[in-house]
Design a protein that fits this description.
Layout: H1 3-8, E1 18-22, E2 29-34, E3 39-44, H2 55-67, E4 74-78, E5 81-85, E6 90-91, H3 94-98, H4 100-120, H5 130-143, H6 149-166, E7 172-174, E8 183-185, E9 190-192, E10 199-201, H7 203-213, H8 218-229, H9 235-262, H10 269-289
Antiparallel strand pairs: 1-2, 2-3, 3-5, 4-5, 6-8, 7-10, 8-9
Pfam families: Choline_kinase
Protein name: Thiamine kinase-like enzyme
Keywords: Kinase, Transferase
Amino acid sequence: MTPEDRIHALGIWRGSIEISPIAGGITNRNYLVSDAVARCVVRLGTDIPIHHISRQNELAASRAAHAAGLSPAVIHHSAGVLVLEYVEARALVPEDIRAPDMLARVVPLVRACHHDIARHFRGPAMIFWVFHVIRDYAASLKAAGSAYLPLLATLLARAETLEEAAGPFDIAFGHNDLLAANFLDDGKRLWLIDWDYAGFNTPLFDLGGLASNNELPESAERLMLEIYFERPPTDDLIRRYAAMKCASLLRETLWSMISEIHSTIDFDYAAYTAENLARFERAYQAFARDQ
């Protein structure tokens, strides 16, 4: 059955429908669907254990995020299908996030995610502990005989250094995938979408991911921390944050290495691996110099 056939067969539509692919998904396939009454976003994707993605967890997080006022409503779900309210909005790009005025809007939304979603989440919840994910990815790469095997011992040793440096840890409910495209601006407010990797984590992981995914300059990183914590960052906080930023880049690198082997989505994962490995190396060297 084609994706279009699956969407037609959902039985929730009023009248005939129009289906248009939405570009950008690399763990699922997304479609804009219009019927006689409304427009919806349909996300097609099954569990991906190798990436710690549970669609039941994504559903629960999506519902909780909507209840917290951060994300569009869930309209329908079934096995491998999530249908969401469509929001007429523009997806941000990294250049947007780097602008101080936009950063001042984005960071409170991230803080609201950390503070509010857990109050609304129901049922079993995932823990997205980045250092466990890194170790699990490394084990999967070894089992698959990855071409990156010669790098793994060094990368795992660095992960241990980062885990030790990043503590002590606060725990909050994190988004854990703060790409610019997961923020939508409807002209009045921002929305946060795509809860594939959501789960309890330390807030510094999301902040590190926000900075690394959007290549924030150092001045913007300090502004981000000051907005989030509502005070100038201490040297200790900056050290812990720098470690989690490195961990975010390392996880993204290993995610891409794994995806080179397992993903069926048309995407240049090898180039993405090389880009993120280079960025991790730069960030880790800067972190090591400051210790």
